[in-house]
């Protein structure tokens, strides 16, 4: 049984059709349960930051989300605007298509530029495990180290037919990070499809240092939830 | 039986894990079948434009895709970069969340800014019908007229549990456009989930002037296809 499980959780709401009232609730829950952060789309960063001021709960947002297939400059612009609006952490999606095409310099430079503009703010790099072979997961994790990422994050939660975070993938990322000098400084965010407390604890046991889920309250309280996790 | 059905089709590949070889095939098919356009993510616009030079096939790309929940300025930047890379048409996603919250000025201004920077290039505005009530679909379509859009587009193909384009929604959008002065100048792009030639023809009969599908070849040739449509 892991103590203070709440402090691992990025309380997440990325549905494009979420209403302001949903974000109000998200932020109130995050304060109540003392989650580590909320994770919202760029358009809602300013609102979340205003709601969470002084609470100790961080505001994370997503960049190039969920496809990762836009321009590096577009991701850079999004990052800068989000920081202006009060984002404390940046969850960016890699250029998945470039990684699969072995354009590793494109992928690394894409991450590096976001890390640069994010400055002291941690950048979590979503590698979208469901889209990759194990060899590609390893390669993506190594690129995250080289590019100065704070964490490797498994999934967007939006990949068609995807499973999201698995114990096996977290273990693979952990082994990869531990294999390279400096890699052990990076955290791992397991995200997507985390079903319940037992699932959350298994991911932490495998090496996850952060959990991205829309089921945070159910995970903490043990309530049943049918919410789809993003 | 609609003639030249091929000329209605935006041959679409938006999967984040598509490879360069997939885009090569997409462009070759678009040339062969003389589709109206290909529709690709920003990162692949330059490649598609190079492959399709002189072919008469247009290059469409997506902006703020598929959630629509980023900053207007980020969408503007994406649009400018895509045009630089050779995009002929821009398919943007509205700020769905703002529409649902009745922040109509936010939604309209978001569209207007993209129309401005797109200049002579048509802007198709994705309203994501699966996320909206009928009243919201009507409102979104009216905003498209006011903001200078070239087309109302039904769906991203990425909405969780969504059906994509339906005959009923196309009819509703058509009636809405016809109800307002200037509205009949706008086209309608039906996208997402178009199963086959009969489905395509039903959407055109309902008022669609463009079809967005990853099943274009199967629709034209009558072949069976299991491809998920985006």
Sheet with most strands of chain A: 8 strands, parallel, barrel
Cα-based radius of gyration of chain A, to the nearest Å: 16 Å
How many H/I helices of chain A? 9
Characterize the overall form of chain A: globular
- Which pair of protein chains has the largest interface, and what are the residue counts? A-B, 37 and 37 residues
Give me the oligomer status. homodimer
Detail the poorly predicted runs of chain A: none
In round numbers, the mean pLDDT of chain A is: 96
Helix content of chain A: 40-55%
The end-to-end span of chain A amounts to 24 Å
Strand order of the largest sheet of chain A: 1-2-3-4-5-6-7-8
Share of residues in strands of chain A: 15-25%
Please report the total strand number of chain A as a whole number. 8
Q: What is the chain-wise order of helices and strands of chain A?
A: EHEHEHEHHEHEHEHEH
From the helix content, strand content and strand pairing of chain A, which structural class follows? alpha/beta
């Amino acid at each position: 049984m892991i103590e203070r499980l709440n402090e691992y959780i990025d309380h997440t709401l990325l549905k494009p059709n979420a209403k302001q009232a949903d974000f109000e609730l998200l932020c109130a829950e995050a304060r109540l349960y003392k989650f580590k952060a909320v994770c919202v789309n760029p358009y809602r960063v300013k609102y979340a930051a205003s709601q969470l001021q002084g609470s100790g709960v961080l505001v994370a947002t997503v960049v190039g989300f969920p496809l990762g297939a836009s321009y590096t400059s577009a991701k850079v612009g999004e990052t800068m605007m989000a920081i202006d609006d009060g984002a404390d952490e940046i969850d960016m999606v890699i250029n998945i298509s470039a990684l699969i095409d072995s354009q590793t310099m494109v992928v690394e430079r894409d991450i590096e530029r976001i890390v640069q503009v994010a400055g002291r703010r941690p950048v979590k790099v979503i590698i979208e495990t469901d889209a990759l072979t194990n060899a590609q997961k390893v390669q993506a994790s190594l690129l995250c180290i080289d590019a100065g990422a704070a964490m490797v994050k498994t999934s967007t939660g939006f990949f068609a037919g995807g499973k999201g975070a698995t114990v096996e993938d977290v273990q693979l990322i952990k082994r990869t990070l531990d294999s390279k000098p400096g890699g052990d400084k990076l955290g791992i965010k397991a995200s997507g499809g985390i079903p319940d407390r037992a699932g959350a604890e298994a991911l932490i046991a495998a090496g996850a240092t952060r959990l991205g889920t829309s089921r945070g309250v159910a995970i903490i309280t043990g309530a049943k939830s049918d919410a789809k996790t993003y």
